[in-house]
């Protein structure tokens, strides 16, 4: 993106970054935020789960294995954690601020459905996301299990194990195939940090430039059965 990029527009862009463990989501989001800020663009970075809220603290305890919760209950808490911040996202975007979000509803539906609970299908898991702000673009950072392993072994949190991650990988693809055409863009995250960040910057710039064409911020709809 050139330094002369014109960011004049009516609203901010809503950019989501998704991907498997260690794909580099958080470091790339922080880098993109800093880059856009340096260019004088108003930008905010939000991570889900947001572990700072009352709901987020329940999620944090669950992920660390300090509490046990029914699969449906924890799923709805993850979704509630997005709903409690959704209005702020909408307000920021209306005020011309670009919002970068690290994991969103896609992770929400996919990780819960990957547990294999027969009463928690992908379709069921998507339901509480309907009506949340829909990203202008979702950048999915693709990484192979081998490349991810080079960035460190699995951590101690729940879901950080190979069988879960491989089900998550498949379900992400299933979910993206059900999303409206063009919402998701795939990025090879197995390359150097700089190569990946250059591609992300370019796609973010395109998204910001297209916001006027997209029109008002959209909402998530149901996924086809
Ligand atoms: N979860 C859920 O179940 N339901 C929901 O609704 C939501 C989430 C929102 C915690 O998420 C868990 O919550 C997660 C999904 C579930 N479970 N799992 N698995 P989290 O987002 O809090 O987890 P995290 O630990 O922050 O993210 P992460 O996925 O493990 O990592 P990352 O953000 O993708 O990567 P990173 O921290 O930026 O980088 C990882 C390391 O790789 C780090 O040392 C970097 O310096 C290095 N790195 C990054 N890029 C590169 C490149 N290009 N080359 C080499 N090294 C690199
Ligand atoms: Mg992260």
From TrEMBL:
This protein's pathway: Pyrimidine metabolism; dTTP biosynthesis
InterPro entries given in the database record: P-loop_NTPase, Thymidylate_kin-like_dom, Thymidylate_kin_CS, Thymidylate_kinase
Report domain Thymidylate kinase-like positions: 17-200
GO MF, one annotated term: nucleoside diphosphate kinase activity
* Enzyme nomenclature, EC number: 2.7.4.9
Tell me which CDD domains the record gives: TMPK
Task: Kindly state which keywords UniProt assigns to this record, in alphabetical order.
Answer: ATP-binding, Kinase, Nucleotide biosynthesis, Nucleotide-binding, Transferase
Question: Which GO terms fall under biological process for this protein?
Answer: dTDP biosynthetic process; dTTP biosynthetic process; dUDP biosynthetic process
- GO CC entries: cytosol; nucleus
Top-rank EC class of the record's enzyme:
transferase
> Which HAMAP family did the record assign?
Thymidylate_kinase (MF_00165)
The record's similarity note reads: Belongs to the thymidylate kinase family.
Report the protein name in the record. Answer: Thymidylate kinase
The organism encoding this protein is Aspergillus coremiiformis
């Amino acid at each position: 993106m050139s330094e002369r990029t014109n960011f004049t527009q009516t609203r901010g862009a809503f950019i989501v970054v998704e991907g498997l463990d260690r794909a580099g989501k958080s470091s790339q989001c922080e880098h993109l935020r800093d880059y856009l800020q340096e260019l004088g663009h108003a930008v905010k970075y939000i991570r889900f789960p947001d572990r700072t809220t009352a709901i987020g603290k329940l999620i944090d305890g669950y992920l660390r294995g300090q509490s046990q919760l029914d699969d449906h209950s924890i799923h709805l808490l993850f979704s509630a954690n997005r709903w409690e911040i959704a209005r702020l996202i909408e307000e920021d975007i209306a005020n011309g601020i670009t919002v970068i979000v690290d994991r969103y509803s896609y992770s929400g539906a996919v990780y819960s459905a990957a547990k294999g609970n027969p009463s928690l299908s992908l379709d069921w898991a998507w339901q509480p996301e309907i009506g949340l702000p829909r990203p202008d673009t979702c950048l999915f950072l693709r990484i192979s299990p081998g490349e991810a392993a080079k960035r460190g072994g699995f951590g101690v949190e729940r879901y950080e194990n190979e069988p879960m991650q491989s089900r998550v990988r498949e379900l992400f693809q299933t979910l993206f195939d059900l999303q409206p055409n063009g919402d998701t863009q795939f990025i090879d995250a197995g390359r150097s940090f700089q190569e990946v960040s250059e591609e992300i910057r370019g796609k973010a710039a395109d998204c910001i430039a297209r916001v006027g064409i997209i029109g008002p911020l959209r909402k998530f709809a149901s996924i086809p059965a």
